[in-house]
């Protein structure tokens, strides 16, 4: 049984793990003030080509979203997100638990567009409803699509016009940046959004996300929020070391590229066999639609998520690749599918 | 420069790290439902000699406290803690941030006694003040003292009488259980408190605490709270693997014992030189009082926390030992102190 | 200029005001423990024909909703409401501010049906999403429709099956109960929902709502929540006196009947002139659709809410009647409309 | 039985009630935007001799405190208050329920002094503890003492130096301002604090407090918070009308003066009989210490609060006067006491 269920089935990229091992006995400061966290911040700033940001390392993605958003907003302010947005659909009301409403806008491709934001703003104009203040987007999105530079610029423009904050959830930013369709650089992102995070967990780390705060007014006292919400690890070195390794050379993007390459093999093979997709997703998550009996046979050798019922005979599944996905396994998957499809 | 500043300066115990490395490429379920988390739960239940508990692995201590307490209490209910209690004194209002007041009782030795609880209950008897509902204790305490079985039984009795929950923060439970003065077993604890956590971070793990919920009514839906507060790691295996290693043989207690042994060497040496302590702390944290010029000289070779000003000429410092503290270093510390003291 | 904008433009029904005046100098207990609150509770229980309920008086409707819901739910639990539901659409995220998500279901007539509840339950089945726990309905709804006994029984059945709480917002319960289409009694309601409130503010009081808690497990410690959220008035008598007056004879229903009678005059007159409605609303709120130039002329003499743009030439407005609406004024409104329509 | 238990035993001052009656049938805007609220704001600004403030009317005191404080603070920020402060001691954790810790400083006379503030600031200097941000004081305090201009200036100075907000709870501001020992004017207060409220409930109104926001940055979007926390009454006129009546002439201070005069009669009489006080309180609350048998006899004719046990034979009680306290009753109380004391 081989799993294509998600991008967090295995542990860490071997280079990361090796660094954890070789530094294990060094004595470090606690709480994210160690030399590795400091070095990792410097390395990321270099890659961002932007020195005017604050960077904090946080164990997980939901935690990053909730701490950032709760620290950025006043009690009456709300988020705008796509209805597929992770904070709306997959985080057990984590944002609401901090007191803030998430206004969900229907989107077919997982992306929130400037017209969605405008619509939300226009329908929230007095004190009997919440005040939209933060626009939440994911790149890549929860269904594998990615934002273009044009789309991000349009979002920024509408945010600037209406005094909104633009926040990007980058749990799968590595894969997004390495997509063949991507035209955004890390520098672009740091200039176009007010805060974003660079996902480690789904891009080769054991755990950890790097929150990048770009807008000055959002930076103050952020470490208090980390501590208050339980995100300040005593052995913060664990996060710093991993991001040093991801960013000191090019590992972060190499991992994204590998995951995408493996997804491309799957995508090309599946397309050649004549199958369609729920959505065109040029990243490490693909959503092919198969007849149910094909899925039953695939299940004998692979695990994956059942995404959505299409009709009585067809179902959409999700296949996800990662740094650890093996080339021979995805080739074999396509071969298997070919055999199954012939019968 | 050698650090005796805390018990989280180094990484993980080598056995734990090795297990992380050797299992790295295995594909596991996410979110704490992997085989290692399952195995770790079984192993801990064995050591507890108590099968009727629920066990959850959580990245850090503050997070464990806040999630457990927020899930246990209704909005109007409050905690009772010693004024030195971690949730009152060191967690940036994490409990208040979830909506609950912490009623602090003054205690000289870091321990909350049954009479403190009774006093808090008696001064909170109507709806114009919060309703005390949860008694928070730490074992060992924040100043290194430990609870006796008698004290814990008395606390349980007053809790039972007043329908209160008894919760033990076990960030340093390993050291407490290995103290020469300890008479509590893990089984005792699981029978006397309604929930507690077994600290990994300060006892040899990279990160991670094992929350043990003993009282049935507190168990329902706990995983929702983990997710909602951002504590459910995608690669939950990372926590499971470490607790397997800590509990499959006797590593958890071996680490506590080593830390205590190192503290004993320090304590005996310091006492022999005629110094006093802020408090008698029979665990891995000791609080000697030194003349300020002695401290200045110690600072040349050691880092440690300045704990409390005693008078114009004397100050209390905190020395902490861990799994990683080296015997030759603590012997050398005592030697150094002897030399300094002679001059 | 005459206002048909809402049912809170005037002060209190004269009988209520008179009682406030005549009791003004009596010395009473504070905080809702006075003889009038006690009497009012007894009178309401009589009308409910149900002695097994707890009754609390709360200044306003949003406050009642948020305190009740926050006291009933654990942090991971959510509400289900119609997308027009007051807690979703008109309370500035008051429920989210207490930490709870509101799951909105699209409904054409403002009513949440059992199939909506079922759909919400079926799409929320694991700990990565909130757990639906409370079903919020309004009677009459925000667009003037009312629940039938059959609908309420079906809702109760689905709630019972899925261990959900059924909560009714009765801000306009007086009008609902007096509707020609109503088949529910107060007794029915107290048997079919777990908690509900009887609106005073929109039914002749200066302010005040009576929260009725029917389910035993929801009753405990409720006064703590009142105090904690700022709803326990020092001069609680003010609320008690008003509800005594509303319930000692039949004033509560007389007011609802009068409001409905006035709405009927409007409805009949408007219908006779051939106009349509956004929705069939058999209570004190009606939603006629008029050509824009008709609306412009009506505006010269009446104030009302513009509800919804229908098309380029037509708009829906909201007309609301109350205890204070004068018969000659609504007759005159219809006359005016007739004149305007002829030209 | 005559009650000296508190200043909210009776209803409203007759002039206020009369105004409510005479305006009852007027149609007004809802939600605090009616002509009476507008007029009341203008009148209060006149009395403040300060036009640069925002004024909001809120049903109760706890509600005012919690909404103001929650809207002013970010999640990691805390209040500093005297241990007798209403938000610490009498509001069921209302502030903590909004997520913020209250740091309590021991004070003998109910007043928070600048040295208390400084002490709190100095002991909260890193992100492992909350960040003190708002200084909460009550004037008069919960034990009847009042602030001098000098004390208030010193508090403001320390607040300015440490970037803290100064907030005054004026539930009993009327009595404070009319105290023989008072040297503060409303104008002084509006210049020295960043926000405060003028209590109506305990100064002759049926209910209602007027929150005055002096600091510009605290004003934005405040009405959203009112609505979100359930404090925006539909018939907001009820609050506006009362404050018009309190401030259009001099009624607010006349009431404070009457209450103080009645307290003076009690105080002088009790002192003449040789009794002592818990604290020197020059306002409408006094705290005499009586032998227990004297108290038992007083109880036959008067109700009052038992405040504090002094020793085995003596107890401190609280006597409170108000607009409604009758001169002949307090004279009679002193007579009664004299008789009791003689025997």
From TrEMBL, chains A, B, C, D:
Its cofactor is pyridoxal 5'-phosphate. Residues 20-275 form the Aromatic amino acid beta-eliminating lyase/threonine aldolase domain. GO terms for biological process: amino acid metabolic process. Signal peptide: none annotated. GO terms for molecular function: lyase activity. Keywords: Pyridoxal phosphate. Pfam families: Beta_elim_lyase. The keyword ATP-binding does not apply. SUPFAM superfamilies: PLP-dependent transferases. Belongs to the threonine aldolase family. This is L-threonine aldolase. It comes from Romboutsia lituseburensis DSM 797.
